[in-house]
């Protein structure tokens, strides 16, 4: 089993479910500012899903250094969840304090991208 590919696929599935649900169920219930937050969260969620899926495919193909790629994937998954899901939760509940987690998710995403760049420095082919 390839856990990175699985996580990427599940993130992608959730991004479509949440994006479609938001369009049909949430948009009418929130103001324009909150709606922009939700759409930003969906975009970051979708980008995270695509990148993690690509990392999973690369790992399945034997890309090296696998440890660095796995580490980058872990931070990208965590950052995507912290960033996007804190915004989703705040929009659904009206508890703005839930967005206090959002910057932590953003920093975690940045660190994930930095780790991916670090992994790229050590990529080799068999």
TrEMBL record:
One of its GO terms (cellular component) is plasma membrane. The chain crosses the membrane at residues 46-63, 75-95, 101-121. Keywords: Membrane, Transmembrane, Transmembrane helix. It is found in: Membrane. Its main location: membrane. The keyword Nucleus does not apply. Pfam families: DUF423. The keyword rRNA processing does not apply. It is a multi-pass membrane protein. InterPro entries: DUF423. PANTHER family: TRANSMEMBRANE PROTEIN 256. Belongs to the UPF0382 family. This is DUF423 domain-containing protein. It comes from Wenzhouxiangella limi.
